[in-house]
UniProtKB/TrEMBL annotation:
Stretches assigned to coiled coil: none
Quaternary assembly: The basal body constitutes a major portion of the flagellar organelle and consists of a number of rings mounted on a central rod.
Family matches, as PANTHER family: FLAGELLAR BASAL BODY ROD PROTEIN FLGB, FLAGELLAR PROTEIN
GO CC term (a single one): bacterial-type flagellum basal body, rod
Subcellular location: Bacterial flagellum basal body
Official protein name in the record: Flagellar basal body rod protein FlgB
GO BP annotation list: bacterial-type flagellum-dependent swarming motility
Organism of this sequence: Ruminiclostridium herbifermentans
Keyword Transcription: no
Length: 122
């Protein structure tokens, strides 16, 4: 029982770390909105995570780490070479904050269950 609960915590920890990394990337994007030739950053995690879950070996999940990637797409609306859209970044930040808060609640709930299992075992 405890091992199953711990495994869920490990997966949620990975997702929480990805959310923290994404928050940092979005903050960098917002700070550099007026920097010429700056390319927005994002975090690659969800697709790597989904791919590892589809494989037969679930231990692959332990190796997944959030990776900061640079968005090389051209934004034709700006002539300075910067591809950051402040409105989009603010939207991404709000969405990421909601994800982060949901993950924290899930982790807290998971630890409460673990404490209950330990109490019942006494």
């Amino acid at each position: 029982m405890i091992q199953g609960l711990y495994g869920k915590s490990n997966i949620m920890e990975k997702a929480l770390n990805a959310s923290i990394a994404r928050n940092d990337a979005i903050s960098q994007n917002i700070a550099n909105v007026d920097t010429p030739n700056y390319k927005r950053k994002d975090v690659a995690f969800e697709q790597y995570f989904a791919d590892s879950l589809n494989r037969a070996n679930m231990n692959d999940v332990d190796d997944i780490q959030p990776t900061i990637i640079e968005d090389k797409s051209d934004n034709k609306m700006r002539i300075d070479g910067n591809n950051v859209d402040i409105d989009s970044e603010m939207s991404y930040l709000a969405k990421n904050t909601i994800k982060y808060n949901a993950l924290v609640q899930l982790i807290n709930s998971n630890f409460s269950r673990i404490k209950n299992v330990i109490r019942e075992g006494k």
